[in-house]
Amino acid sequence: MTDEQLVSAIVVKKDSALFEILYDRFSKRIYNKCYSFVNDEDEAKDLTQDIFLKLFVKLSSFKGDSKFSTWVYSFTYNHCVNYLSRSKVKKYEKRFPEFYDAADLTEESYSNQDLVDKLNYGLSMISAEDKSILLLKYQNDLSIKNIEEVMGLGTSAVKMRIKRAKEKLVNTCALV
After folding, report:
1. Which residues, at least 6 apart from 96, have a Cβ–Cβ distance to it below 8 Å?
2. Which end of the chain is more exposed for a tag (fewer CB within 10 A), N or C?
């Protein structure tokens, strides 16, 4: 049974057993997306549960204009952005370790872990929207067209946002 057929059956029958199948198919992907926003296992689990509760209620709003997986991805993305926007303090910023003083490091002394730490720090310092579009493009390997669907933007807007987000990330990392 395809995702779309499963959704239709859930909407018609209101069968929680069918919803469990949907949960099994998407829970790991949704959790991973949530974790990419908050960098905390417990918080990501809570967000995942919140998303599935909302999905059960809003499942009938899926119209089939796109693949269900794209719709769920968009739903998850929007929920996480809204969650972070509502937070008064960026909860994920405190989860990163202290970093070396940049003055003490030469280019040759950077290990791969140093670069990963620097990148993670840079990602934690830019806005949730900038972080999200970069993760959609480079971590999740979504095409510009798929990012358009997820974010509800046009091609040029997606390309410009990616360009600006990369510039912000590079500038932020340069300060570390």
Report:
1. 39, 117, 120, 121, 124
2. N
pLDDT score recorded for residue 143: 84
**How many CA atoms within 13 Å lie on the side-chain side of 65?**
10
d(CA 93, CA 124): 6
Residue 51 has pLDDT above 90, yes or no: yes
> What are the pLDDT digits (tens) for 146-159?
888 888 888 888 89
Contact 52, 20 (CB under 8 A): no
Cβ-proximal residues to 148 (8 Å cutoff; 6+ apart), any chain: 154, 155, 158
Q: DSSP readout, 48-73? A: HHHHHHHHHHHGGG--SSS-HHHHHH
**pTM across the whole model:** 0.55
E strand or H helix at 30: helix 16-38
Convert the pLDDT of each residue in 86-112 to its tens digit. 663 444 344 444 443 343 444 444 556
Domains and CATH numbers, the chain: 1-91 (1.10.1740.10), 96-176 (1.10.10.10)
